[in-house]
């Protein structure tokens, strides 16, 4: 059951493309990360933010600094692997404000028996909307020590389930959107306008 899992939000810090910490940017009446948190709360009892920015503490959740700094998302996942009290946990980026409960549940429901379960949307693997298990920790640690920190490459060393979700209606361009720069933020506003 999904409510037995922990959830970790990877909020890495200053974005080179955005010029500031993306998760703290406002989208309508909430910060990007608050959109993520509100959806995660529908399914997870324990939500942790992995970030070196103390500003996230204002949200009232546990904030963990990277165990090894300077590794990007690979370091955030490493921290979650070391920290999680659950054998299996869900990882999501702080810049995906339109994630939905059905999409999260879909990935979780297809994760049985796998070390890592990731959706593949429009031929792009999504390692920051995925389920990981603690059994990944020894190999993940070795890969980091070998200076391999690109997620797409790291995934191939595990018992990996790639879910082709192009034909699954709950996975849409909006739902899978990352806010990486100001044009993405504008598109996010447009998505919200079109709902009204």
Describe the structure.
The protein is α/β, with parallel strands linked by helices and about 200 residues long. The chain has a single domain (about 1-195), classed as Spore Coat Polysaccharide Biosynthesis Protein SpsA, Chain A (Alpha-Beta Complex). About 30% of the residues lie in helices and about 20% in strands. Strand 7 (about 115-120) and strand 8 (about 125) form a beta hairpin. Helix 2 (about 75-85) packs antiparallel against helix 4 (about 135-145). It is globular and about 45 Å long.
Would you kindly provide a brief summary of this structure?
This protein is of the alpha/beta class.
- C-alpha-based Rg, rounded: 16 Å
Report the end-to-end length measured between terminal Cα atoms.
Answer: 34 Å
Please count the helical segments.
Answer: 6
Order of helices and strands: EEEHEEHEHEEEHHEH
The overall average pLDDT, rounded, is 92
Describe the oligomeric state of these chains in a short phrase: single chain
Please give the number of β-strands.
10
Q: How many structural domains does the protein architecture include?
A: 1
Can you name the CATH architecture?
A: Alpha-Beta Complex
Instruction: Specify the CATH homologous superfamily.
Output: Spore Coat Polysaccharide Biosynthesis Protein SpsA, Chain A
Structural class determined from secondary elements: alpha/beta
Which topology does CATH recognise?
A: Spore Coat Polysaccharide Biosynthesis Protein SpsA, Chain A
CATH class: Alpha Beta
The percentage of residues in β strands lies in: 15-25%
- Tell me roughly what share of residues is in helical segments: 25-40%
Largest sheet: 8 strands, mixed
Outline type: globular
Low-confidence stretches: none
